[in-house]
């Protein structure tokens, strides 16, 4: 096919929402997941590849993100930027995101444009345009992104990208997924082709379609547009769990733009592959600890001690629970008051963990937290673009897209004793944290992080 298919006339839609999931696999290994929802005449199409920051070879930090940009620079039958023009022309939106263990490309369009979306994704899976001009252009774009979000940002998006280096020792887990500009400038088109051939194959990908789409039609169109692409093989991951935490570790980062001291502390999360209650208990523990003015740490550190001005907790460095494989991190970020002592604040956090381990939250406190978590989770699934990405991550990484619908009930089933047990497990882990401080006297601007005692 030399050009994209036409957008079909939208048929009357059936206002029925379903949680049914339909799975199939093409002969070339491409997995297909369809989640019908006929409540609106719209569809989201995502292709999720099993490659991310933790797949990068040493010396090529940031390569996965750079290559994501290259996938928008034209393909077998489309010129540079044509993908986006076709999506925008029918009123749709599109984007791509790189995570620790997966890279996702998605678009949301009217349901009559389903075949167009499948053609566009298949065309770049078949043969993206990897040219010297495109590479130079995208290195410059990524450089500006790194400067804006990391180098020129005093707090650099805490907890990432600095907390990984104190939480892990192996390269796959400890390195910075943004990369260094000077190294990215040396990337070659040949390396891009090798990366594409290793990771961007049907056997290493999952096609997700959410919204007003018939599963049988999706299968037919997927076969038509993806079926003739050579399958390749599922790429081996470079990630590894590494040794368990054995000692306290602290690193300092000075930045001339820092106004206040900031602290990011981390704890290893339970392995989500076990799919038991331990992960859900930690998710709920994070709500009890840090969500809202009546949370344990806000009560202690903001209202009682007055040592911090702002705090937040994230369950997983991938941005959302279950968006990474093991190992992953629960992270707490604190912005301190000018006179606060960093170690005293961290001591207070561990005191509250030990207190929860001893007594646990009350059933009433826990029920309210569980209801709030479940409501937020379900609300986040409402936009089709987010739903397609989340279902894709759950299916690709854990083989369980159904978790998107099951997690709220699993969260509500967690007991105070389970939360207390989760708090005890965290309190027993060694202390690993990073601090961001105003530039120290005599330090050059942009100095590298320094190891602390």
From TrEMBL:
Keywords associated with the record: Hydrolase, Metalloprotease, Protease, Zinc
Domain Peptidase M16 N-terminal residues, every copy: 31-147
InterPro entries from the UniProt entry: Metalloenz_LuxS/M16 (IPR011249), Pept_M16_N (IPR011765), Peptidase_M16 (IPR050626), Peptidase_M16_C (IPR007863)
Gene3D superfamilies for this protein: Metalloenzyme, LuxS/M16 peptidase-like
Cross-referenced SUPFAM superfamilies: LuxS/MPP-like metallohydrolase
Domain Peptidase M16 C-terminal residue range list: 187-366
Pfam families from the UniProt entry: Peptidase_M16 (PF00675), Peptidase_M16_C (PF05193)
Protein family: Belongs to the peptidase M16 family.
Protein name: M16 family metallopeptidase
Gene source species: Streptacidiphilus alkalitolerans
């Amino acid at each position: 096919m030399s050009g994209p298919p036409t957008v079909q006339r939208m048929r009357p839609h059936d206002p029925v929402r379903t949680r049914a999931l339909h799975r199939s696999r093409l002969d070339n290994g491409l997995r297909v997941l369809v989640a019908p929802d006929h409540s609106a005449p719209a569809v989201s199409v995502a292709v999720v590849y099993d490659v991310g920051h933790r797949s990068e070879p040493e010396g090529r930090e940031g390569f996965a993100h750079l290559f994501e940009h290259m996938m928008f620079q034209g393909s077998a039958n489309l010129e540079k930027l044509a993908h986006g023009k076709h999506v925008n022309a029918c009123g749709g939106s599109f984007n791509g995101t790189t995570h620790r263990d997966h890279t996702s490309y998605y678009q949301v369009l009217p349901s009559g444009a389903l075949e167009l979306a499948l053609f566009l994704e298949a065309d770049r899976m078949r043969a993206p345009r990897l040219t010297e001009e495109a590479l130079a252009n995208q290195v410059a774009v990524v450089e500006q992104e790194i400067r804006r979000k990391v180098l020129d940002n005093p707090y650099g998006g805490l907890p990432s990208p600095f907390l990984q280096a104190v939480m892990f020792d192996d390269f796959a887990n400890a390195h910075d997924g943004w990369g260094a500009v000077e190294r990215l400038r040396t990337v070659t088109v040949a390396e891009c082709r090798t990366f594409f051939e290793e990771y961007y194959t049907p056997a290493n990908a999952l096609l997700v379609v959410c919204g007003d789409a018939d599963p049988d039609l999706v299968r037919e169109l997927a076969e038509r547009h993806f079926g003739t692409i050579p399958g390749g093989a599922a790429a081996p991951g470079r990630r590894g769990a590494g040794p368990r935490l054995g000692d306290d570790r602290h690193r300092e980062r000075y930045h001339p733009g820092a106004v206040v001291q900031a602290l990011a502390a981390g704890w290893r999360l339970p392995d989500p592959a076990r799919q038991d209650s331990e992960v859900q208990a930690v998710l709920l523990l994070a709500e009890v600890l840090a969500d809202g003015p009546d949370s344990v740490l806000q009560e202690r550190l903001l209202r009682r001690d007055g040592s911090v001005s702002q705090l937040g907790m994230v369950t997983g460095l991938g941005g959302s629970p279950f968006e990474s494989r093991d190992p992953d991190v629960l992270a707490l970020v604190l912005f301190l008051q000018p006179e606060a002592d960093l170690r005293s604040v961290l001591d207070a956090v561990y005191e509250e963990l030990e207190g929860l381990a001893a007594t646990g939250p009350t059933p009433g406190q826990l029920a309210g937290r569980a209801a709030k978590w479940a409501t937020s989770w379900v609300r986040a699934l409402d936009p089709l673009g987010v739903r397609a990405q989340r279902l894709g991550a759950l299916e690709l990484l854990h083989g369980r897209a159904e978790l998107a619908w099951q997690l709220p009930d699993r969260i509500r089933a967690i007991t105070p004793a389970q939360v207390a047990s989760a708090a005890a497990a965290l309190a027993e882990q060694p202390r690993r944290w990073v601090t961001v401080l105003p530039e120290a006297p005599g330090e050059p601007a942009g100095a590298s992080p320094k190891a602390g005692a």
